[in-house]
């Protein structure tokens, strides 16, 4: 049988990260290519207790069909929490629980974009979102990212000259892959530009709670008096990613359409996982859990930067210091062939990093960068991995 | 803000069933409109034990990111089980675990159809699938269903005269909503027609294990030597729908594209739920569980048909006897305005049934039918509901 695939899928490549993962599965390889929480970040005891209680007291609720909008108690909790803590949510907004924040991206593109319409995104940006937009036939227009966030004049120009822009996709805090945090000024400027052009903003904030230094900045959604921002939150980095629970605070009119689309995707999100998130947030001290995670990751982030300074920077590779998140973004000198460097790093030197081209809006674009994750490997593996990278850099760059 | 929605979503209405559900939430209403398993169908004790064990022995596996294809042990189990039990799966096939079988429909349409391409479906058919195909811009071409399945000559004609048909969607066993089971002859005829026209088949089989009478018929996928059938299975009716775990056995080449699309939808299916399904299937006697479910539902099906014979049929409403599944399909005499009948049934007589128009491929089409579910209500509620329906029918039809 000669299969005919849709145009939107035919052009989509499996994530380059997955290719790297194949090599990274080799036990002799140190993987700095993942984006997973540390295994010791999981509150396994508490989550186990919650499960036992649910099955002892109201098991049917965890097993029967539920409503598409999400577990009512969790929705109410999120509504209150986001309003109280982050000034997110107005009367015109509503809350939808999703199967991970990834599904929010899918729903936004499905609901807001016709095929051929454009999504503006930071360039580079999270490959999962970019591929998701592509898989629904959206075009991507990249706006370069600077150390304080999106290049606002390039954004203004893109909005001026690109037809049918449906939304601007941004990760303002500790962006994946660049680690960059958008300044307050740029958050306002981005909001004002979107408002001016009647374009929506999808604010993806999986890492916002993982700040290790500096003060929290207000989320763009907290300015939103116009109903133009779709906020995307996730429990993946602060409870557990395997649960696949995300949530959006979005204008109710948009959310209603997302609900109709979600009915056709998975009917509703796994209800046991939603109950676990609700119980975890309300039964235990969530702030204490966040403080624990920040301490754990902050130490690892510092350690990773020290190791880079010691082993890698002396050979001409630079990196952007970060204030939070899971990733470090490194830049090779122009003389080096970046894709070849990443390939040889894993094949010859047994350290897996992710080539920057994987994160570009234009898949044919070029990049001198690569991404490192420091949360998944143990300290020993992290040191070994960065040492190997340094040794290889010395070989190539002297 | 004036929101602009995509064409594919703008035309999509929230499921009519959801409207009925709103009324059905009134405690004075007897709901025969759902499609839920009976509350006593759930093996709560065993599932609770499994959860406790998972969190005692390998909690991180249940909480960390996992692979898009599915929990490896569950995939292997499904591969063996489907091959051994149902002769499903050839060397060219592979297994993908999904977030409910609903996601399989979404992935099929996304991967196989461009906007404007056509999906052929039984008419009436499962509204969740029809809406899902619509939400990806596919056109629907309905083929009438007869008491032994799809009208094959109408199917042949549709394949002959409809451009860009990408797949035929069928529920061969105890179809939703009609309850019809496709004969063996028609299964072969459908397969042969699809083969002749180079069109794929999506075989949706959520109810296949719930046969109460007669012999099992081979699934269409069991004939598939050409790699043209995508088989869709689900744990929703045989373990628990709240877990949202389905699986497809599909040609590997197609499955690879589905994996790429699934990455963009939810990365992977909730891993705890996948582990629960695997442990449930391997640790307990699954056949014994199926026998228990068949006994439970078979009794309820018989009871519902007896009640219809006693209270409803005498007033001129007919129904199709069923051999399995969750639904009964009733037909009103031509003199009755069906949508008005369903509306008055719930508003004035406090019994919720689903109007047949909800399940049509052409949303503007007409129907004299309505759907009844007998698995969710208790025996008392079932009797009360069908009595009310009978009293109303007497009022309208004499």
Secondary structure: elements and pairs:
The structure is a homodimer of 398-residue chains.
Chain A: H1 7-10, H2 16-24, E1 30-31, H3 44-57, H4 59-63, H5 72-86, E2 93-98, H6 101-112, E3 118-123, H7 127-135, E4 139-146, E5 149-150, H8 152-161, E6 165-170, H9 184-197, E7 200-204, E8 229-234, E9 246-251, H10 252-266, H11 271-283, H12 286-311, E10 318-319, E11 327-331, H13 338-349, E12 351-352, E13 354-355, E14 369-373, H14 379-397
Helix pairs in contact in A: 3-11, 6-7, 6-10, 8-9, 12-14
* Unreliable segments of 5+ consecutive residues of chain A: none
What structural class should be given to the helix and strand makeup of chain A?
alpha/beta
Task: Identify the overall geometry of chain A.
Answer: globular
Helix % of chain A is 40-55%
Mean pLDDT score of chain A: 95
Number of helices of chain A: 14
If you consult CATH, what is the topology of the largest domain in chain A? Aspartate Aminotransferase, domain 2
* CATH first level of the largest domain in chain A: Alpha Beta
Radius of gyration of chain A: 21 Å
Which architecture of the largest domain in chain A would the CATH scheme give at its second level? 3-Layer(aba) Sandwich
What is the subunit arrangement here? homodimer
């Amino acid at each position: 049988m000669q299969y005919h695939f849709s145009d939107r899928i035919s052009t989509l490549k499996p994530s380059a990260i997955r290719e790297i993962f194949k090599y990274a599965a080799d036990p002799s390889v140190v993987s700095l290519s993942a984006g997973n929480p540390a295994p010791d970040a999981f509150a396994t005891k508490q989550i186990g207790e919650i499960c036992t209680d649910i099955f002892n007291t109201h098991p049917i609720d965890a097993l029967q069909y539920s409503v598409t909008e999400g577990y009512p108690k969790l929705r109410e909790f999120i509504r209150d929490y986001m309003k109280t803590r982050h000034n997110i949510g107005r009367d015109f907004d509503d809350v939808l629980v999703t199967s991970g924040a990834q599904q929010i991206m899918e729903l936004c593109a499905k609901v807001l974009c016709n095929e051929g319409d454009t999504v503006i995104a930071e360039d580079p940006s999270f490959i999962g979102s970019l591929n998701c937009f592509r898989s629904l036939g959206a075009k991507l227009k990249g706006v370069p990212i600077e150390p304080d966030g999106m290049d606002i004049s390039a954004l203004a120009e893109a909005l001026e000259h690109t037809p049918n822009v449906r939304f601007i996709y941004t990760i303002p805090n500790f962006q994946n892959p660049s680690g960059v945090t958008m300044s307050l000024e740029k958050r306002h400027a981005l909001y004002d530009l979107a408002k001016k052009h009647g374009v929506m903003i999808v604010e993806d904030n999986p890492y916002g709670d993982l700040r290790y230094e500096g003060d929290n900045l207000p989320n763009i959604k907290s300015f939103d008096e116009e109903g133009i921002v779709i906020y995307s939150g996730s429990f993946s980095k602060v409870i557990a990613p395997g649960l696949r629970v995300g949530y959006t605070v979005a204008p109710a009119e948009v959310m209603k359409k997302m609900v109709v689309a979600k009915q056709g995707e998975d009917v509703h999100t796994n209800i046991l996982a939603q109950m676990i998130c609700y119980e975890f947030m309300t039964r235990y001290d969530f702030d204490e859990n966040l403080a624990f995670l920040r301490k754990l990751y902050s130490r690892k982030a510092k350690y990773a930067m020290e190791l880079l300074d010691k082993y890698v920077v002396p050979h001409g590779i630079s990196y952007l210091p970060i204030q939070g998140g899971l990733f470090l973004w490194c830049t090779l000198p122009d003389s080096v062939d970046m894709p070849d460097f990443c390939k040889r790093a894993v094949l010859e030197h047994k350290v897996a990093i992710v080539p920057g081209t994987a994160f570009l809006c234009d898949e044919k674009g070029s990049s001198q960068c690569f991404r490192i994750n420091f949360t998944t490997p143990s300290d020993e593996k992290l040191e070994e991995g960065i040492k190997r990278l340094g040794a290889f850099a010395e070989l190539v760059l002297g």
